[in-house]
Each structure stands twice: as structure tokens, then as C-alpha cells.
Specification:
alpha+beta; 7-stranded antiparallel beta sheet
Length: 164
Amino acid sequence: MPAVHIRSHSVPPVVLLGALMCAMAACGTQSSVSGGSAEGARAKSAEALTSWEKPSSYTYTLTSSEGERTLIGAFQVTVRDGRVAEAVGLDESSRRVVKQSPAEVPTIGELLEQLEQARHDEAYRAEAQYADDGHPVRISLDWEENAVDDEAVYVISGYEPNSR
């Protein structure tokens, strides 16, 4: 991406924000961050959600990390009729989760609901990055700024809608 030199004292902040959003779109992902007003974050999130029509059946790989939670590890997830039909643990931690608590493995829609809940609860951080088609590729949550181990990071890869 070419370097752009802008003197901030001569450019209104809204123009800088627009330039940043255009640059991010050119990189193939969009971000939605909870910083600023909660209303603005909800509007950005709603915009991303409306650009992605959640299929009833799809597969994806979820890498869940950070914090002290049950859902840690890498999972291959198959969703049918809007529910997790199969989850395969791809590492030791995720295999344990699938064996002991399979209901903990979420659909992408459930991850987006967690993001919205964190924004509603005014979490310290509730950020998402989206692919060009609108599905999330990364969700980062941190409920309290100074709390230890309350974070959650979800990386979504290998997303493939299934036609039935």
C-alpha cells in the first residue's frame, strides 16, 4: 500500500476516519471496534452483519485463545440447519473440549452474538475484522481493562458455505 502523508491539523478527523476505512477495505478485511460510542459500534456491526447472509450450513475452522475459559484450541466445525452438527478437535485442548463439553463449540452466529453482547455490556474491547463477503475472520473480546484472563480471541478461517 502506498504511503500517504497527511498533516492532521489541516484535515478534519472524519476525513481521516474515511481514509482509514477505505484503506482497510482495500486490504480485504474490515474492522469494527467498540472504541467510541456504543451506538457507532452497533451501527458498524449491523452494517457488517447485513453484508453477510449467514447460511444455514457451512464449515469453518475456529482457533479460540486467550483467557481462562473452556473453549481453547483449534476446531473444525460443521454447521447444518444453523446448529453445530460436528466439531473435531485439532489439538489436545480442543479434543478435550469436544469430548467433555461439545455444546461449547459455537456457530459463527453465536460468536457474533457474543460480540454484540460484549458491546451491549460496554466491554473494554469488542472488536471484529470481516472478510469481503461480510463474515467475521477475527473477534477479540476483553470485558474489563484491568481484569486478568477475561479475554477471548476467536480466529475464523477456512469458511465455506455448503449448498444443500
